[in-house]
Write a structure and sequence with these properties.
heterodimer; A: alpha/beta; five-stranded parallel beta sheet; 17 helices; B: alpha/beta; Rossmann fold; seven-stranded antiparallel beta sheet; globular
Amino acid sequence: MANMAPKKNPMPSQDPQVRSTNFDEVALGYTEEMAVDEANRCLGCKTRPCVEGCPVNISIPEFIAKVQEKDYEGAYKIITQSSSLPAVCGRVCPQESQCEGRCTRLKMKDGESVGIGRLERFVADWHNEHSTEKPVKPASNGHKVAVIGSGPAGLTCAGDLAKKGYDVTIFEALHTPGGVLVYGIPQFRLPKEIVAKEIDGLKELGVKVMTDTIVGRTIDVDELFTEMGFEAVFIGSGAGLPMFMNIPGVNHVGVLSANEFLTRINLMKAYKPESNTPIVHPKKAVIVGGGNVAMDAARCAKRLGAEVFVVYRRGMEELPARKEEVEHAIEEGIIFKTLCNPVELLADENGNVRAARCIKMELGEPDASGRRSPKEVPGSEFEIEADCVIMALGTSPNPLIRHTTEGIEFNRKGGIVVNEEGATSREGVYAGGDAVTGAATVILAMGAGKTAAKGIDEALSK
Amino acid sequence: MFKIVRKDELRPMVTLYEIEAPMIAKKAHPGQFIILRVTEDGERIPLTISHIDPVKGTICIIVQTVGSTTEQLKRKQAGDFLPDVVGPLGKPTETKGFKKVMVVGGGVGCAIAYPVLKQFHDDGAEVHAVVGFRNKDLVILEDDIRAASDKLIICTDDGSYGRKGVVTEAIKELIEAGNEYDQVFAVGPAIMMKFVCKTTEPYGVKTIVSMSPIMIDGTGMCGGCRLSVGGEMKFACVDGPDFDGHLIDWDNSMARGRMFKDFELHKHEETCNLYKMEEAK
């Protein structure tokens, strides 16, 4: 008999007062009892709406059924048939708009969906803690594939191909593999040990990782084919260039991109006193933007001891960040200044930023995208004092490969053009993730890596 | 891992390292840089390549000991390994198609000026070099620079070697003497480059400078190395490091360069103290 409680088992979390001063993981994960109780809320619908909502089509009711039976390793095996990074996705996927958004339990009065993400995380963590089974390196099929970038798209593509016996090499520009999972998403949302473990798993499948190698500089796509003998190349180089506002004062000292702020903290561990990488410890920080990256930057700034303001030009309802992230930010004492937008950044006599001059906004008619476009309220300018302003306005695809590779078609925004198999206009070259779409989510990048792996397999096994 | 194959202490605080990095050596051109880390968990620091040997598969960097990371680097010996060296980064300096150029180097910036100067020379330009140092003990690469230039003026602040004074005086004299330069290429401390640009501007001599702002990844991701050039935002790592010096907002650039000065001083001291404690044991 299903557990008919309307609400999800709440996620045990660190107390907001405590966690806003440390970088340890916020959500602590379900206990076994909670997981089984939550799994019992699943109705096991024959129509499987949740599976349709998942970009990589995990067999969700089936893995949950295994959790009900307390066969957690069995559940893990089902998840990993479709996903290479369950411990990551269980933590950072926007489940509410994917699998959980389609859950039948939502149709009941005051009903919440089954906590699919929380269960996925439980299963992955259980496996990482208890399983002694090593992944078996499959027999080689003799084909060589190069993967550019070790973010979620690249790791997924590499994992899927390695499982089929391909000889896969990942080329990573930074000194640590993981892409946005290590430089972008903070430790308190996604511990780096988990990412490292997932990558070790891929290495056990035979995937080689070459760090410190920038395709487009150290080596180019042509050489991957001609000199290194790869038969296919997957480009998952991610969204590179951070966007800044075109307002006066944007280059003042203390104004930085969320990419820089987060990279210093996450990749370079600047929050640890022993780190040699410097970081500003702001007293008052203004974060401009309302997406997940803005929430990450805000919560990091909070943990460095700042009073933090998130400035967003639309309203609370329109914040593009996951609801859970916004709630966590509010709990931690982050102040939201919505319906306003910076028009100028002011500096002291030494060129250090001292305030953001903002203007109030109101929402007008819905635009082409269906979102109500914000308009300035004339004469409503005001100042927010800040010794640090962080721009979290999105990124555009990294241009290095575009500038050094012939024969690949790019769109107006610099994204690589691909077909439904993930293939670019150049034979043997595939692409996916933010390099194609511009800044998006981990799971969409994984979906794209998966699609391309299938496309590469079909092309090379002909 | 990247092996240090040669370490040469050019001056007490200025050291040359030849590093085995065949993939980088094969691709690198004068004006480009690398990013390295000295320790696992260490900081990433950008350093311009001073010599490239594609046959041997090595590159050289010349490093002034100024902070914690360069202090750690100084403790490395030939035969030791660096965990990370990545590059070549940035765009190569344009050296082709010039008849007569002036290359200006300041202090350890001469390590960058030298390969560019040599490339100008090899590409057929008449090269006049003006290099400045604080004093005689800090002069580096004199023979290399002399061999690749048609005229060389060495200046020291205290007059202990060459002529006394700053590079801008020599630059002005050369231009006033009727030398018509297609271009001036300057590299050194920001304050020097700023004044080189101020000196050449009235004469309308195009002046290219090699910028070395604070950066992390070097691939265009962090935006930390941005600067304002002709009112436009540019990233030194992907758009540079070379820019038209007459268009740079120098005051902003220099303020940004000082951003972490206190932190760096503190960390350097901390590192030195750690080494001292180890040595005392």
